Amino acid sequence: ETFDTPELAVAKLAAETAELIRSNDAAGKPTVLGLATGATPIRYYQELIRLHKEEGLSFQNVITFNLDEYAGLPREHKESYWFFMHHNLFDHIDIKPENINLPSGTVSDAEIPAHCEEYEQAIIDAGGIDQQILGIGRTGHIGFNEPGSPKDSLTRAITLDEITREDAAPAFDGIDNVPTAAITMGCGTILAAKRIVLMAWGEGKASIVQKAVQGPVNDIVSASYLQEHDNAVFYIDQPASTEL
Ligand code: GLP
């Protein structure tokens, strides 16, 4: 779905999210949200914060799972996704700390497989993800599922593509400071969500959005797998839609 502005898109998505949370609350069920980082979802988080502060939307019964985390970054690092999520969302709403889940950037290499299995199990134990939001990287990745990621991949360590590291370089004051690996939910983990919403803003995303939506479904563009999900939508602004 194409919107004139990102603000209109996130207003709709946040209203849908609020409706999901309120209907689950009424039914006495928790709401499980899959969350993403990057510049793209920040406006959405700002709208959720506004709904919390101005319209009393409660996150007391919300459980969150983030897509990914850089390997080697402690929580306190200002570019860690743990830090990003607290700064941009969790510190401003009434979510319970024990309901917040992100992969850890600091488990030792030997512990990574067990850590990833525990992450998968925690999602299953929570009842699965009700709504997963996504951005899209220049390589077509969702989460950090770089080209070559199989459709049925699960949470695992992954080596970051050079293009992805270049895009992250300004935030890290140079590419040499960008981690070379990450832990990410797999494509299969993401595709198991009941609903998926991929957001993209600006003409810089137009080419990769076109490949994801209209290109062949394959591991070159992991976002193309969304074409085979029965409840996945793209919320994009007009400039991101120009190559469709
Ligand atoms: C990183 C994140 C992705 C995100 C992508 C695009 O690679 N792991 O989840 O979608 O960046 O970032 P941005 O939204 O800043 O364009």
Automatic annotation (TrEMBL):
InterPro entries, A to Z: Glc/Gal-6P_isomerase, GlcN6P_deaminase-like, Glucosamine6P_isomerase, NagB/RpiA_transferase-like
Q: Which Pfam families match?
A: Glucosamine_iso
Q: Which Gene3D superfamilies match?
A: 3.40.50.1360
What region holds the Glucosamine/galactosamine-6-phosphate isomerase domain?
6-228
Record EC number: 3.5.99.6
**Secreted: present as a keyword of the record?**
no
Q: Which domain of life is it from?
A: Bacteria
Write down the top EC class of this protein: hydrolase
Question: Which GO molecular function, any one, fits this protein according to its record?
Answer: glucosamine-6-phosphate deaminase activity
Q: Which GO terms describe its biological process?
A: carbohydrate metabolic process; N-acetylglucosamine catabolic process
Keywords per UniProt: Hydrolase
This protein is called Glucosamine-6-phosphate deaminase
Taxonomic lineage is: Bacteria, Pseudomonadati, Verrucomicrobiota, Verrucomicrobiia, Verrucomicrobiales
